[in-house]
Known about the structure:
This protein is an alpha/beta fold. The protein has helices at residues 23-26, 34-40, 56-70, 81-84, 93-108, 124-128, 137-148, 164-168, 188-206, 229-245, 288-300, 317-336, 378-389; strands at 8-10, 16-20, 74-78, 112-118, 157-162, 212-219, 222-224, 253-257, 261-264, 267-268, 305-309, 341-347, 365-367, 374-376, 391-393. The two termini are 22 Å apart.
Amino acid sequence: MTTYTGPATGAPDGFLWGASTAAHQIEGGNVNTSHWEFEYADDTTVAEPSGDACDSYHRYPEDIALLAASGLRAYRFSIEWARIEPEKGVVSRAQLDHYRRMIDTCRDAGVEPVVTLHHFTVPRWQGRDGGWYADDVVDRFRRYTETATRILDDVEWVVTINEPNMMVNQTEAKIDTEQGVNFPGPSPHVARVIADAHHAATEVLRGFGGVKSGWTVANQVYQALPGSERKRDEWGYWREDFYLEQARNDDFIGVQSYLRTIIGPDGPVPFPDDVERTLTGWEYYPEALGHALRHTREVTGGVPMLVTENGMATADDARRIDYTTGALQGLASAVADGCDIRGYLHWSLLDNYEWGSYRPTFGLVHVDHDTFERTAKPSLGWLGDLARRNVLPAA
Length: 395
């Protein structure tokens, strides 16, 4: 097994070590979402539809067993609104039971479930009514959260909404990972609506019991060229900082970090051609996580942080380990500086559907998308070894 043998420091007591996934990206056959409609529309811009994905809807026990066997002890996954509420006001008890079985499978394996209520996709009926532009979407999301609490009685960590800033900041909330993030201009109106939905959900969850609730924000690590600091701050507010501000009264905030964005006088500037890039076209920059954690603490005022996504799209697993080592060194440094960080959940457990293509491989586990055979990569055992020892790589 590949193990880390370099300088190390102890992780905080009770630190959560795990990996993350999202329902639409791994379950397969998620036919009742508006994103499935988009993937198969005649005029779609999606190069490759999700189809069967990783068939994790049926194979989740194997996925959880692989994670647990490695030494990891937390699994972040999302439940699918479109399955639970297939028509407006219609609740599927069978689908609630399905996700409850996922929670029970985690518990039986000694794995802490971290449950996300919304990870980019909405039901077809919600999409047709305008998605986050629908007049009553906040109330709909509140009711969906109330429905979800039926299966969350022993779940400690609940994410309300994944990366709201990415949904708002992309045209029609369509995700195009391989082409990078294109900003047509964020909508403050939709930002406030999604924030209201988040606050409605946290209100429900606070009245429910011992749940810790928060949302996750994609931290872009905005760095200014000399003289462009004001432009950086203006550019970043509705694309990131607004969402961090909304978390100031939450139990925790999920930090999601992959890259940095350099801001010049007119906005983002391209990187030189000779910069190392990942399979998503992003700059190889593991230092981003440390920057993201410090910035999040600064804006939120010290809300506890859980790294809910961090990883690298690469076909070279040794390079994935290199990237993760650098990212965890940044995390260790942030802990030493007093940042309250409760855990690290790697993106992703599986090579999954990256919103338009299976080509970018983030997984700790390879998935053959013809046979669905799972094969653990060395990086899974490497990260699991750190988890067993509860140590962080030190610079």
